[in-house]
Amino acid sequence: MRRDYRWTISQPPEPSLSAQLAKEINVTETIAKILIRRGITTYEMAKEFFRPQLSHLHDPFIMDGMEQAVNRVMRAIESQERIVVFGDYDVDGTNSAAMLYLFFKRHLGLETIFHIPDRVKEGYGISATGIDRGKEFGATLLISVDCGITAIEQVEYARAQGIDVIICDHHEPSAELPKAFAVLDPLKPNCPYPFKSLCGCGVGFKLLQAIAKRRGNEESIYEYIDFVTLATTADIVPLVGENRVITKIGLEQINKNPRPGIRALIDSSGTHLGRITTGQIVFVLAPRINAVGRMGDASRAVELLTSDDQLLAMQLAQVLEEENRNRRKVDEDTFLKAQELVENALPGNTDPAIVLHHEQWHPGVIGIVASRLVEKYYRPTIMMTTVDGMAKGSARSIIGFDIHKALKRVEDKLIQFGGHKYAAGLSVSLDQIENFREAFNAVCTELMSSEIRTPELRIDTEIILSELTQRFIRVLKEFAPFGPGNMRPVFLVRNVEVVGLPKIVGKDHLRFKVKQNNQIIDAIGFGLGSLMDDVRANSKHLDIVFSVDEHEWLGTNGGSREVFPQLKIKDLRKYMYRPER
């Protein structure tokens, strides 16, 4: 099924500005235009973008609450207190727990345990079960990471047990904050920290940075940057500012000298050391870490990530591999059932959102399936299952629509909710599901413009194929790591001709060659077989929106490896003549 996109071409900067930047950093004006669109307008800014350094990170003590948090940790070090680290069951939460556990136990020498809640029995966030476990261990300090910002009652319970709490979170706070010893969250009202897009592990890392800075050895905590890289990439936070610095340097660390657990994860997943990218983290490594939390005990992921034994790490990685296979099977079965429910409801259905409930769906996969439904139908989607006599679920949104804000508008129909602009969790009474569905759709109708309902294809700039030189492509690769806020540049080329016969390869992938002014280049559209008729009908005159990719070809009989540029097609249309103005 073809999806109709709005093609939006970015407004070009002033020609004098792009010409000046191109001259200063020795790139083409096309590259300069893309940089300027990303807020990079000077030589120094470009230098920082292309050559990020750990020295570019902000002073952690700017974050509100950091002074109190560090003072409390210093007291714990002096008194040799016991610590319980409380994480979450996703990639961000497990990497956060692994990082803090290793830091407090091995780096600082404090008796430390970690607790990851059971998704079904405890649910998301700080739980009484985890607090009780900390009390039994003898902990007097609980540090939550990637959760806790709404844990008002849980913090009170911990304090009643003689346990102080430090919260490291990045989720939206409620009007009332927990009365913890310290609350670290850049999104707190009036927090002056300049970078607001850290993941949970990123906030935890700032705590480590501050502790190490207070102790006079800030550089010592940079060995933990691989954890933050995995969490930052998997949590789909913007890869700009500090996140880009951390991820760029962390990827180098992962590719050159990964810790045993990460090395085992790479080897067992079939990816290749030295060639790990953000894409491979999101689509290959992260699902395996997530799988053990979705299908059972997420503590196994922390055990893998903290392992020093390569043999044990490989055994644990195989557990993640098996759980991921199980997760995929449940995922597919759930998706097929959800798709059936949507298709049956679609005729005549003008609801702007999809809200589904099925009492037997596995709570570990509904978030994934919600994302798949968003991709297929392009509507905000909520998937719920029955847990402990209530409907619990995951919400996923479309570009430009704040689903957290929408849920806030209908919170009188909810037991609880929390999350981000594009992803959230929620609980609803079983007898309120229909009322919630109606109210949520009413709010979506009010808040969603017609533009938001049509997916947008943002184009950085127009280009001609002759610009795609080896040096141009080499500079484009330096824009990595790619992710939200720093996506691969997207180009529009007009009036190209198809050379030879287009064909379908693999699983519905469209492949052909295009020509413009004697320049010929390969093009591929992954999953775009439905566009074959458009290509055939307009083979002499096509407009194509694409990013630049590389195709690897291995010579026959063990020949040398060659890499060729190719257009990775996002959409195409018949060329329409536009006279020059």
Structure description:
- The two termini are 36 Å apart.
- The mean pLDDT is 93.
- Strand 4, helix 7 and strand 5 (164-168) form a beta-alpha-beta unit.
- The protein has 581 residues and is an alpha/beta fold.
- The chain has helices spanning 15-25, 29-37, 43-50, 66-79, 91-107, 128-137, 152-160, 200-214, 225-234, 241-256, 260-269, 278-295, 299-306, 310-345, 366-377, 403-409, 433-447, 450-453, 470-477, 532-537; strands at 6-9, 83-86, 112-115, 141-145, 164-168, 182-184, 354-357, 381-387, 390-396, 416-419, 423-429, 456-459, 461-462, 491-505, 509-516, 519-525, 542-554, 561-574.
- Helix content is 42%, strand content 20%.
Briefly, what is this?
The chain is 42% helix and 20% strand. The chain has 581 residues and is α/β, with parallel strands linked by helices.
Distance between the termini: 36 Å
Number of strands: 18
Total of helices: 20
CATH class of the domain at 55-223: Alpha Beta
Q: For the report, how would you describe the main beta sheet?
A: 5 strands, parallel
Question: For the largest beta sheet, what order do the strands appear in spatially?
Answer: 3-2-4-5-6
> Level of helix content?
40-55%
